[in-house]
Amino acid sequence: MSIYEAVIGLEVHVQLKTKSKIFCGCPANFGADPNTQICPVCCGYPGVLPVVNRAVVEGLVRSALALDCRINKHSVFARKQYFYPDLPKNYQISQYELPLAENGHLQVKVDEQSRDIRIHRIHLEEDAGKLLHAIGSRPLDYSLVDLNRTGVPLMEIVSEPDLRTPEEAAAYLSHLRAVLRYVGVSDCDMEKGSMRCDANVSIRPSGAQGLGTKTEVKNMNSFRSVREAIAYEIDRQTLVLDSGGRIVQETRLWDAQNNVTQSMRSKEEAHDYRYFPDPDLVPLNLSDQYLEELQKSLPELPEARSARYVEKFGLSSYDASVLTAEKKLADFYEEGLKGFEGKMQKEAAKPLANWLTTELLGRLHAAKKEIEESLVSPESLAALVALVYKGAVSGKSAKVVFDEMFVNGGEPAAIVNQKGLGQIDDEKQISEWVDEIILVNDKAVQDIKSGKTSAMGALVGGVMRKSKGRANPQIVNRILHKKFSQ
Ligand SMILES: [Zn+2]
């Protein structure tokens, strides 16, 4: 058996979130009744002329700048011949020889190992419509076509074949999604189809330089599918080569139900598409000033933000990367940190990060809710962290307060009062509890007296239970130690 390495490149289609389609004024949103968002332009009537949507160009350029691409100030639209009923004019307007952007980069991290993945190009194109071959589970002996999606703006982001494992491919996709969401150009929702991914997969003997014959895997509509489909395809190709066979260049579909890829058709070569410049559209010429303005409009991106959290707040790079993976999460965190001033901010940074990533995100995840639906506001979460820090409430009681905030909202201080959860510092009261616990714990008392100080824990635990978790544990400890040292 030979040792192979995989060579993987991804072609990612991202729907740009614009009000209207790429070449006409029809709405670009999903979910409307079939064929209600169409016009002569997107239906390809004879004699119509497409006009490019400014917001689409802006969306692509901002994405490309965020991905460190070179922008081609001069780019051209091309016709890609395509004979299928979901694009009635029988070609797709795309870009071929002169795409809007080339030569980008994206850092990908797997198991704390960072690698730079090159982006070959990013170009604009229009989406095709949708064909229906069944209604529900009932197959039709004809096909229906819905052209609402025809002409919806897409950008295609093509990576170089720099990825080596299914995990790297998934990490690339996930980081790409994070960057594009930061830029605000797309929801990048794979389940809803606003982000779609095809993978080119080949294998070669480890250490070889040339490329093996590749297959293109399609129909992966979740991050998990991407990982599993690529892993399956690598195994399949390995088996073929090891048994003396040859890989056939073809397109294969991922079948998520049976966890296999299946041959769909032999893969087209670029010359099959008969690309040529679209004579109906003028080339795009972008000015330096326009590009500078778009560059300035970019937000702080996840890597920069993560580095700032490590530097300024002393977070671990793991915590920082969890917090900055989603812009809305990082915004929530920083909004909360505003509740602390000066030096306190650094002290609160780690506990606030913990409360946010473990407690709040965990509960939201279990309730299948997004952070914007959270009844716990950044301010109230920060106020809870402050109460714990000041010792006004024990860590255990804080969880009870948090539960109440999560379900009904509200301010932590008010909940502490209302539920009587404040920490008890009254030494006389604590001393009485200690005496009661000592009386009923002969075994532990004997153990401590014979030098087994670890038995002290049982007594502390007893006092804490007696006080329903409200006794200040430092005072409990101090009083207990005093009693046994006498
Ligand atoms: Zn239209």
Low-confidence stretches: none
- The assembly state of the depicted protein chains is single chain
Proportion of beta-strand residues: 15-25%
Principal-axes shape call: elongated
Report the count of strand segments: 16
Instruction: Round the mean pLDDT to the nearest integer and report it.
Output: 91
Number of domains: 3
Q: What topology, given as strand order, has the largest sheet? A: 2-6-7-10-1-11-12-13-14
Largest sheet, in brief, is:
9 strands, mixed
| Count, helices | 15
Question: What small molecules accompany the polymer chains?
Answer: zinc ion
Helix content: 40-55%
Cα distance, first to last residue? 75 Å
C-alpha Rg, in Å?
A: 30 Å
Strand-pairing-aware structural class: alpha+beta
Structural topology:
Elements: E1 4-15, H1 54-66, E2 70-71, E3 74-75, E4 78-81, E5 91-94, E6 101-110, E7 113-126, E8 130-135, E9 138-146, E10 153-159, H2 166-183, E11 195-205, E12 215-220, H3 223-242, E13 250-255, E14 260-266, E15 276-277, E16 284-285, H4 288-296, H5 302-313, H6 317-324, H7 327-337, H8 343-366, H9 378-390, H10 395-408, H11 412-419, H12 427-439, H13 442-449, H14 456-466, H15 473-485
Parallel strand pairs: 12-13
Antiparallel strand pairs: 1-10, 1-11, 2-6, 3-16, 4-5, 4-15, 6-7, 7-10, 8-9, 11-12, 13-14
